[in-house]
Amino acid sequence: xxxxxxxxxxxxxxxxxxxxxxxxxxxxxxxxxxxxxxxxxxxxxxxxxxxxxxxxxxxxxxxxxxxxxxxxxxxxxxxxxxxxxxxxxxxxxxxxxxxxxxxxxxxxxxxxxxxxxxxxxxxxxxxxxxxxxxxxxxxxxxxxxxxxxxxxxxxxxxxxxxxxxxxxxxxxxxxxxxxxxxxxxxxxxxxxxxxxxxxxxxxxxxxxxxxxxxxxxxxxxxxxxxxxxxxxxxxxxxxxxxxxxxxxxxxx
Length: 252
What we know:
The protein is an alpha/beta fold. It is 37% helix and 23% strand. The chain has a single domain (2-251), classed as Spore Coat Polysaccharide Biosynthesis Protein SpsA, Chain A, CATH 3.90.550.10. The protein has helices at residues 33-43, 57-64, 82-87, 90-93, 109-117, 130-137, 141-144, 180-196, 205-214, 234-241, 244-251; strands at residues 2-7, 27-28, 31-32, 49-53, 70-73, 98-102, 105-107, 122-127, 148-151, 154-158, 171-178, 219-224, 228-230. The strands form four sheets. It has a seven-stranded mixed sheet. Strand 4, helix 2 (57-64) and strand 5 (70-73) form a beta-alpha-beta unit.
């Protein structure tokens, strides 16, 4: 099994912390987010890891130069989104199951272990206790959350704007596993989207996942109950910093 970490982001809402370094290098609980992810990956036994960089890539490369990582670069990081970043590492993903991780999240080892042991062509980590984290970060959780609808043990919808809390059976956290066949199908969906519209370079990961679901790929939810966080803003960092319960749930 392989791991691809998507680390091309600028982190504009985190400035000035990201003036001189990429978003994944911002520290949470005393360490860069990328280091937390790599520690969890080492704990799970990963030896085949790729990082796709973009903004301030030289800072990230220098930080990770002795970690045995394969690097890829999204030269269009400023005008594209995570799907483009992902397929910059297409050659790396061939021939084995691949776990895809955002780099502005950190999570405990149990979450990675649970994903690694799941079965199926596509597994998506879903937090059923998401409201607790969202309430920590914002006054109105519904305003920022996205839909997650599950029927008969399969995700049927995600990533859309919810109208009511009942539209949210959990939150996608930015951690996915795909079989080689699913990754190949995802790449073809993106290739066709680019042919149909140049705006497809801004495709979100949830759009890609929904497209795979719509073509019949079964998306299996891997349920978790907290134990992770994501960082979008300086306000997020402030909310997390003094929350010892959250820190313990992630770092032990």
